[in-house]
Write a structure and sequence with these properties.
Two copies of one chain form a homodimer. The first copy, chain A, is 54% helix and 15% strand. With 421 residues, chain A is of the alpha/beta class. In chain A, strands 1, 4, 5, 6, 8, 9, 10, 11 and 12 form a nine-stranded mixed β-sheet that branches. Chain A has a two-stranded antiparallel ribbon with strand order 2-3. Chain A has a two-stranded antiparallel ribbon with strand order 7-13. At the A-B interface, helix 12, helix 13 and helix 16 of A face helix 12, helix 13 and helix 16 of B.
Chain lengths: 421, 421
């Protein structure tokens, strides 16, 4: 199947911009759609735009190397039905039709590409109903469609799975009236509908929509499976707000390095003020979520990013506990406890990651009980801050040494209990 | 395809034992063959044995749950060609014929099952030529076959890929002479040959053969990819000898626990004698290879075993360096260095394993340059022993702190250089 993208609108409410190439959360709307479709096996596209935005879309296709043809609609006044009609020579058999200004999450697209006719949503969560195109359905087919329907069953998602017969309907309408809107074609064809409800999708009409979409995308990009208590209820609430602010300006790698430097700085701060160092360490823990959130939100996830981030995190923890112990402790026995806390911090991560290396899958997915095991990094750092503020460093080190040992032992025990081999 | 196993021999030179169920390196010969064939998609077997060993093979099939039929040859005096003939009602189409007393490595079987006719080896490395059945080949077919051929081209591997036509030849011979040897049938049928040369396979005729096979199997079970210099040239030379001695009596898990306890004991020995502790630590490093060797040699590899072994290794290193530092050091600055050495030891492993978790493949396979990076565990432990013997503990800790930091940085750098994403 090919994908036909309708991108001939003028984007008036956007201040006349080609909406498909507008960046939302660090990525062009159309990049998101085309990239996910490629993953789903649909790698060829036909983009229909107007003469005003032709160059922009040409540049976009070249930049990312998409396998897409560009068609210029020289008569945008004939309606978006005419844009669809222009694609008729470029598709054969079943094809997909998408609006260039719609953002869809992957789970939506996975289901939509397997549907037929007009994909509708019975319970759109993220689209403002007033602005939405409503659909009245009878016998599984479109009975009526329009923005101002009072009586309707679902909302038009801007996603269609069509056969070439649709071009005959468009042809008829164009011959009769000299212009054709997609909604008129859909109604005349009494197009079949497929329900795909409850997933994230939005059409971007105004600058406010961009802000709203950015927020939703960043929130959805939290990889929460391995999050501890503090992450879930404190760190993520703050980090997603920061991510939404930064996603358009900062790359994930820049964020990783900045967070690492802040962590090392917080460790050095132990020489000056332990309470202040503790607070900054907790701040770096909050920021530690941002690189991953930005990476997933802007579709820039790379395996090296995750790898380097994990290694650097271990060094931050090491540096912090080491400087803390150095300025607070003189006796060898307490150094043994400090070394146990340092080593234990590394082992918590090691025993988790080593599982993935051995079993090839995520420990939190395979063993849900892992999520109830306390002592994750976010929780340990929060504890560290509290004890730094209270000035109880020896108690902290003892607590961390015990906590990390228990968590590592608990991890091995859970793996053993769940093992098949 | 089904596999027909000829197991009706009396095993005279073995002191009358059913050879297929004899354990070699901790596993029955036939278990090895049937288990690998199952991995290759051949899961049905027909075992032809005599009335003396029928119960033994029945027990063997039940114990491991193999999908195998048992046929009793009540006239073993009619030759092994008659055993083959008895299988005729139990196969349809192409089938595999194997001798129960042959051990084959997986690489051999992978190729052999794709061959046709008699599988022969032009350069058998592990079989004594005097005892071998030789084959003279003409036009790709067996011209002559026998133990005492002077002029021959290859050696019979005891592995055949046959069609039911072979039963007609067997039938003719049995009618004519009342008995039939497989070699006569093969010669009469002028069976085609396929060369599969240079891989490990052996037939087990005598107790000496068992010893020889055990040694070769253990040696082949060294997982050498991640081995450092000391492992390759010292530890493995000793550990494989120990594995060959223990493989029939000790399970991999027992060995893992024993090695761990010895490592912890060596750490505690630092309170008594540092040089002695250093030597014992190196001994535990040698023994550390044995559990994996035994596991692979006896086909008992489990993911949990590898996982637990890795985690326990970190604790042994931690315990040793911690006790060493505790008995040798008083000043905080040196404790910082000791903590760096302890943490660094964990990070070397972490940065390697985290790669597998991120990229899903082995870092030593993906990045061959990793093998030249010094500072692996075997090398560090050997260094530790040397410095313990020399009584230079502070120098050792400093060296380890630097070495592990360099190796971890080198690992991250190599991953970065080789990254695609």
């Amino acid at each position: 199947m090919k994908a036909v993208i309708l991108a001939a609108g003028l984007g008036k409410r956007m201040g006349y911009m080609s909406k498909g190439t507008i960046k939302v959360a660090g990525r062009e709307i159309l990049y998101r759609t085309l990239e996910i479709l490629k993953e789903l096996g649909i790698s060829e596209a036909v983009i229909v735009t107007n003469s005003r935005y032709g160059e922009e879309y040409g540049e976009f296709i070249r930049k990312y190397g998409f396998n897409a043809e560009l068609i210029i609609n020289r008569h945008p006044e004939k309606g978006n039905g005419y844009s669809l009609y222009l694609a008729r020579e470029h598709v054969d058999g079943k094809f997909i039709l998408i609006m260039s200004d719609h953002i869809y999450e992957k789970a939506f697209l996975e289901r939509a590409v397997r549907g037929e006719g007009l994909i509708v949503d019975a319970s759109p969560k993220y689209t403002c109903l007033e602005e939405a195109t409503k659909v009245k359905i009878e016998d599984g087919r479109v009975e009526n469609i329009g923005k101002h329907l009072k009586d309707f069953d679902a909302v038009d998602t801007g996603f269609f799975v069509l056969t070439p017969e649709i071009f005959n309907v468009a042809d008829d309408l164009l011959l009769e009236r000299g212009k054709a809107e997609l909604s008129e074609i859909v109604k005349m064809a009494k197009l079949g509908v497929t329900f795909v409800s409850g997933f994230f999708w939005m059409d971007i009409d105004t600058p406010e929509d961009i802000k709203k979409a950015r927020k939703l995308i960043v929130r959805a990009s939290v990889k929460g499976k391995g999050d501890g208590f503090i992450s879930r209820y404190l760190n993520r609430k703050i980090s997603t707000r920061i991510s939404a602010l930064l996603v358009d300006y900062v790359t994930p790698n820049q964020m990783t390095i900045a967070t690492f430097l802040l962590g090392i700085f917080s460790a050095l701060l132990n020489f000056v003020s332990i309470p202040l160092a503790g607070v900054l360490y907790q701040v770096s823990s909050i920021l530690d979520g941002v690189d991953g959130e930005i990476a997933r939100a802007s579709m820039r996830t790379g395996r090296f990013g995750g790898y380097a981030d994990s290694v650097l995190d271990r060094y931050v923890d090491f540096a912090f506990l080491l400087t803390l112990a150095y300025v607070s402790i003189k006796e060898p026995l307490w150094w043994v406890i400090a070394a146990s806390a340092i080593f234990g911090s590394a082992m918590v991560s090691y025993s988790t990651e080593r599982y993935k290396a051995a079993y090839g899958s995520d420990i939190y997915s395979d063993i849900p009980a892992m999520r109830r095991l306390i002592g994750k990094r976010d929780e340990r750092i929060f504890l560290t801050m509290l004890f730094c503020l209270a000035g109880r460093i020896k108690v902290l080190l003892l607590l961390l040494a015990i906590l990390t040992a228990i968590r590592t032992a608990g991890t091995v025990w859970l793996v053993w209990k769940n093992r098949e081999n």
